[in-house]
């Protein structure tokens, strides 16, 4: 059985290593395949352009895990909408019908919920171009496989943190972090748990739902997270003030559907996850 990773950056590579550890052949499409570890068969591919490489005939699952080159609507559309369309065109061209196509999306498709809870049944209401474009890509993929034997599923991830993704840690360390004056909920997932969720959904025996929320168990208030990081690093508590607009909207995402599949988090909350990140960066706890 072959797993095709259409987009094989940091998250895709981590997922690929986990697929390989389970005994799967893993093929990774990316512009610079030489950067991939030996466990992943790297193939040079620009998903933003048509005419992608041949799809292995025995491909059982495709994971579309792309990333935009820049934070602009045009870049997002080129990566997520055009990139996904080109992958689907390649499957059709080569007559390959995988059992599953998993699209890595974002909780940005929900917009702001005023601090309320959202889940897979909550109507989408993106407020920015990122959520709108991702939602368009989700629909594109779903429409292409409607009425076929292929299951199309979107995994809507919260903010990914982990090795190399230390934005909040860096803000606290530099003294630029600001605790919002209001309660501002955030939703996140450690990179390793995000990769594990991709592998779990792509390989589990049971049937898949159209959508899953990929967030940890604790949609914590941003101020709580910042104060925790300061304490862990032995630094002063960040000041309260104007923290600017909320990234991704103020909402609390439920992961109940993902957990109902038997998925278990290595880092069920930001506390376990950030402690592991801090240990990896060599930061000494007081």
Distance between the termini: 48 Å
Strand runs, count: 13
CATH homologous superfamily (4th level) name of the domain at 2-160 and 190-216 and 253-265: NAD(P)-binding Rossmann-like Domain
Low confidence ranges: none
Look up the CATH topology of the domain at 2-160 and 190-216 and 253-265. Rossmann fold
The amount of helix comes to 25-40%
Widest β-sheet, arrangement of strands? 3-2-1-4-5-7-11
Q: N-to-C SSE series?
A: EHEEEHEEHEEHEEHEHEEHH
Mean pLDDT: 95
Largest sheet entry: 7 strands, parallel
**Can you tell me the CATH class of the domain at 2-160 and 190-216 and 253-265?**
Alpha Beta
Approximate shape: globular
Total of DSSP H or I helical runs spanning 4+ residues: 8
Describe this protein's structure:
With 286 residues, this protein is α/β, with parallel strands linked by helices. The chain has a domain at 2-160 and 190-216 and 253-265: Rossmann fold, CATH 3.40.50.720. The protein has helices spanning 10-21, 73-94, 129-144, 167-174, 191-203, 222-233, 256-260, 270-280, and strands at residues 2-6, 25-30, 41-44, 59-64, 100-106, 117-118, 151-157, 159-161, 179-180, 188-190, 211-214, 240-241, 252-253. The strands form four sheets. It has a seven-stranded parallel sheet with strand order 3-2-1-4-5-7-11, with helices on both faces. Strand 4 (59-64), helix 2 (73-94) and strand 5 (100-106) form a beta-alpha-beta unit. The model has no long low-confidence stretch (mean pLDDT 95).
Main attributes of the structure:
286 residues, alpha/beta, Rossmann fold, seven-stranded parallel β-sheet, two-stranded parallel ribbon, 13 strands, globular, NAD(P)-dependent_oxidoreduct, Nucleoside-diphosphate-sugar epimerase, Epimerase_deHydtase, NAD(P)-bd_dom_sf, aldehyde dehydrogenase (NAD+) activity
């Amino acid at each position: 059985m072959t797993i095709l990773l259409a987009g094989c950056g940091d998250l895709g590579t981590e997922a690929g290593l986990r697929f390989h550890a389970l005994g799967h052949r893993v093929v990774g499409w990316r512009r610079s395949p030489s950067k991939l570890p030996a466990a992943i068969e790297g193939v040079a591919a620009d998903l933003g352009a048509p005419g992608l490489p041949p799809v292995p005939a025995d491909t059982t699952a495709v994971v579309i895990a792309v990333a935009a080159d820049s934070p602009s609507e045009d870049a997002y559309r080129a990566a997520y909408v055009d990139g996904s369309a080109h992958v689907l065109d390649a499957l059709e061209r080569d007559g390959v019908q995988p059992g599953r196509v998993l699209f890595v999306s974002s909780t940005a498709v929900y917009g702001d919920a005023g601090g309320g809870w959202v889940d897979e049944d909550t109507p989408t209401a993106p407020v920015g171009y990122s959520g709108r474009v991702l939602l368009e890509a989700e629909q594109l993929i779903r429409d292409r496989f409607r009425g076929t034997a292929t299951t199309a599923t979107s995994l809507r991830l919260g903010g990914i943190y982990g090795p190399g993704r230390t934005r909040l840690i860096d803000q606290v360390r530099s003294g630029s972090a600001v605790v919002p004056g209001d309660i501002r909920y955030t939703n996140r997932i450690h990179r390793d748990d995000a990769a594990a969720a991709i592998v779990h959904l792509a390989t589990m025996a049971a049937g898949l739902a159209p959508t899953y929320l990929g967030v940890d168990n604790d949609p914590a208030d941003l101020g709580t997270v910042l104060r925790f990081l300061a304490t862990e690093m032995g630094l002063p508590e960040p000041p309260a003030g104007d923290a600017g607009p909320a990234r991704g909207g103020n909402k609390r995402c439920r992961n109940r559907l993902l957990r109902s599949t038997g998925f278990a988090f290595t880092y069920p909350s930001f506390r376990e996850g950030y402690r592991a990140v801090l240990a990896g960066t060599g930061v000494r706890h007081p």
